[in-house]
Amino acid sequence: MPPDRISSLGEKKLISRIISRSASFFKPSELLGLGDDAALLDMGEEYLALTSDLLIESRHFPPTMSYQDMGWKTVTVNMSDLAAMGAALEGFILSMALPDLELESFDSLISGVLEACSYYGAPLIGGDTNEGDEIIMGGTAIGRVRKEFVMMKSGARPGDLIAVTGPLGLGAAGTELLLSGTDTAGFEAAVEKSLKPIARVEEASRMAKSGLVSSATDITDGLISELGELRDASGVGMRIHEVKLPVPPQVSEAASLLGVDPLELALYYGEDFELVFTAPPDAMDELSRIMEVHIIGEVIESPSIEMVDKHGDTYKLHVRGYEHLRP
């Protein structure tokens, strides 16, 4: 019988495997935030928040993406993780493996990194370079958050409402249109969301400082996958309503052209970089007065992810998301 391969697990389960082994080497107090969007180091009144992401040209960047947009996205994916914890952004470290690019292309790549660092207010403070067969961008973002403001995946309670900060499926629609070679005229918003996503840093700061959010994470691997993370961390279940999902018309139009289900793009693909979070009903009312809020469901006791479809029928959803590690 052939040995098991890491591709049989997928990204989420592979990370869980690492975390379970780490727990046997360190005290719980030394593993704050492990398994969340960022690790937390106790600095007294604050946590130092750290996160890292690795992007590979052939897997994470659409073929039409410019070098500048590659640089921008590398920074954004890391800043989105820090934002989901409520952290103020402090700095960015970049490590790259690069083929023998033309200097103009290299400068464009770095321009995208620096543009994003400037946008998020987190300077590029170090890194490393090496030679590779394709572009590999590894980022580490550093932030800080007061202990009373930190947002975690755990904390959701039955009766809380579930909400997102913006539209679902646009990034997926844009990426799939670009990959298919379909004419993207009329789909500018979707293409922009795919090529130049923006981390919801300002919204996350408002959420954290309000103290009203019970749990939160960012949507990079698909809404259902992220709800599964909140469910597992909080020990509860999640129920969402199809008619409440903020799926823009462009997503349905793109899905029709591509011959796919628009809900597949909105629920499972990811790349939206919105935040999904929970809060008690009265707290959600208050949050809706200080930021854009789309309520999509509620937290339930049964440890499942459920969907109420547009006909009022309820069924369970399989927790899966966009897997970067493919067989």
UniProtKB/TrEMBL annotation:
One GO process term, biological-process aspect: thiamine diphosphate biosynthetic process
EC number: 2.7.4.16
Binding annotation for Mg(2+) 2: 53, 81
Residues reported in the UniProt entry to bind Mg(2+) 3: 37, 81, 218
Annotated PurM-like C-terminal domain residues: 157-309
Enzyme class per UniProt: transferase
Binding site for Mg(2+) 5: 221
Pfam families named among the record's database cross-references: AIRS, AIRS_C
Residues annotated as binding Mg(2+) 1: 52-53, 128
One of the record's GO molecular function terms: ATP binding
Protein keywords: ATP-binding, Kinase, Magnesium, Metal-binding, Nucleotide-binding, Thiamine biosynthesis, Transferase
Segments forming domain PurM-like N-terminal: 35-145
Binding site for ATP: 127-128, 153, 220
Enzymatic reactions: thiamine phosphate + ATP = thiamine diphosphate + ADP
Residues that hold Mg(2+) 4 according to the record: 37, 51, 81
Residues annotated to bind substrate: 60, 271, 322
Pathway info: Cofactor biosynthesis; thiamine diphosphate biosynthesis; thiamine diphosphate from thiamine phosphate: step 1/1
Highest taxon in the source lineage: Archaea
PANTHER family, alphabetized: THIAMINE-MONOPHOSPHATE KINASE
Additional facts recorded: Reaction mechanism of ThiL seems to utilize a direct, inline transfer of the gamma-phosphate of ATP to TMP rather than a phosphorylated enzyme intermediate.
Function, as annotated: Catalyzes the ATP-dependent phosphorylation of thiamine-monophosphate (TMP) to form thiamine-pyrophosphate (TPP), the active form of vitamin B1.
Similarity comment: Belongs to the thiamine-monophosphate kinase family.
Name of the molecule in the record: Thiamine-monophosphate kinase
Species whose genome carries this gene: Methanothermobacter marburgensis (strain ATCC BAA-927 / DSM 2133 / JCM 14651 / NBRC 100331 / OCM 82 / Marburg)
Gene name of this polypeptide: thiL
